């Protein structure tokens, strides 16, 4: 396993939140809702470090480096993959999700994906309003998934 995991039971364990900057105003809703819900679940906002990258394609490399640092018990990835036609859309989505899974399995650090890949996103106000609200829901769900995953991993025997 590359990288080291933080000591179990430490109260200062951190969560990395890596988000793409494409459609930043929308993706920011994932972060905002994540931080709010995480706070409700006992994860202080001060324990969440936010990193911004250009696009979703850059998220897995940042996640890998953060996992290797040993400073994070979980990494949350957030982004919105749109535009470019169906084949480019699917290629980017598959590459990002596959990269995140590889980071998780290679490092042993939990990676939660809130990288969304809608097939029908348009820049008109109705779609933007829908996604503004929808991404808040996804941020809340990501916080719950993160907290649950970290707790579940903490109950497992330590790996050597």
What would you say this structure looks like, in words?
Helix 1 (24-40) runs parallel beside helix 4 and helix 2 (59-69) runs parallel beside helix 3 (85-107). This protein is 51% helix and 18% strand. It has 160 residues and is an alpha/beta fold. The chain has helices spanning 24-40, 59-69, 85-107, 125-155; strands spanning 14-20, 48-53, 72-80, 110-116. A 4-stranded parallel β-sheet has the order 2-1-3-4, sandwiched between helices. The chain is built from 4 helices and 4 strands, in the order βαβαβαβα.
Strand content: 15-25%
User: How helix-rich are the residues, as a percent range?
Assistant: 40-55%
Largest beta-sheet characterization: 4 strands, parallel
Given as residue ranges, the uncertain stretches (5+ residues, pLDDT < 50) are: 1-11
Distance between the termini: 9 Å
Strand order of the largest sheet: 2-1-3-4
From the alpha carbons, calculate the radius of gyration and give it in angstroms. 16 Å
Q: Count of helical segments?
A: 4
Q: What is the overall shape?
A: globular
What structural class do you assign from the helix and strand content?
alpha/beta
Number of strands: 4
Order of helices and strands: EHEHEHEH
Mean pLDDT: 83
């Amino acid at each position: 396993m590359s990288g080291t995991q933080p000591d179990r039971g430490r109260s200062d364990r951190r969560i990395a939140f890596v988000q793409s900057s494409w459609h930043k105003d929308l993706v920011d809703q994932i972060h905002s809702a994540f931080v709010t819900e995480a706070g409700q679940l006992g994860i202080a906002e001060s324990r969440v470090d936010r990193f911004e990258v250009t696009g979703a394609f850059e998220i897995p490399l940042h996640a890998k480096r953060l996992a290797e640092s040993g400073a994070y018990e979980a990494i949350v990835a957030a982004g919105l993959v749109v535009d470019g036609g169906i084949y480019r859309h699917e290629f980017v989505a598959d590459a990002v999700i596959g990269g995140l899974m590889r980071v998780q399995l290679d490092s042993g650090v939990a990676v939660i994906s809130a990288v969304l890949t809608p097939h029908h996103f348009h820049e008109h106000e109705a779609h933007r309003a829908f996604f503004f609200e929808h991404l808040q829901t996804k941020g809340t769900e990501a916080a719950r998934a993160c907290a649950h995953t970290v707790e579940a991993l903490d109950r497992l025997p330590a790996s050597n």
